[in-house]
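B., you asked whether I could sanity-check this one before it goes into the benchmark set. Here's the sequence:
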Amino acid sequence: MPDYVPDLRMVKFWETEVAPILMPLFNGSLLHLPEIQKQYNEDMATFQKMYGCKLDISLGDKPPKDNAGENGALPFGCSLEDGHPRIIIFMPELQRVLEMLKFSRPYDFRIAFETECLIGIMHEIDHLILGKIGYIKDLRETIDVERVVWARTCENTMARLVTRRDLTDSDKDFYVAWCKSGRDAESQQWKDFIASMYGSIKRG
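And here's what the prediction gave me:
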């Protein structure tokens, strides 16, 4: 169980919907996706060398204001308070994602939800490994941070998932844009795409 949990409804959602997806990854037993497990294990080895401690997972209620966009808040975030790395899962937002997938992909919403959870966690681990953490003051800084982090997520996580399953539309947008940019985080095409995806984020 994560080190902080919100109300009981969200605890139940964690136990029934999220933990069965993420705990095998954390425990090294994601056997049906060995490529993702291998990448996670490699990332945790790097993480341990960088921070010298375990990764904490917290379940949160409300994302910060700088995580809220026109289509709702992002369900995952990370922090480095007092040098201690943590990933926060904003449970109401993740529950909203599941409900949207039930509506848009009733035929495979559980696989799609697993994909969303794995990409979300791996993306936040990428933030921590790359040291791209903390308050971002404006869109320009957002682009500078997210273009690098999403490049790593596309290359190390999405590229492994796309060979096994159909990505959700939003994830597919990222991966297709990454491929079209020549897999180059410095390309203007990639920067423009990241700007288009994060342009609706409300700051302050």
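One thing to flag: The two ends are 32 Å apart (CA to CA). Otherwise nothing jumped out at me.
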